[in-house]
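[step 3/7] fold_predict: job queued, chain A
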Amino acid sequence: MNLISLPETKNYLRVDHCEDDKLILTLIDTAQRLVMDVGRMTEKQLAENEETSRQAMLYTVSYLYENRNTADYHALTLTLRALLFAQREGVV
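[step 4/7] structure written:
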């Protein structure tokens, strides 16, 4: 189950060609796993916190897509921790 679709993600990235579809689909899956790991969430919790999870996933895909060759995974993880703080600490 993905909270974000390929067309929605391509629109967010402002990509209007099909050449990167496979890459973007892979990044969507990676983003979901990363958001679940950093947010300490199951798939059910991911769906329960849909809006925050969607924004975190779109941010992750965008970051990884734009920084394919130079991604700073530590910085990405820190940003996701900040975005997902409430979920990580069980506040919601």
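[step 5/7] annotate
The chain has a mean pLDDT of 93.
The helical segments are 6-13, 21-39, 43-48, 50-66, 73-83, 85-88.
exit 0
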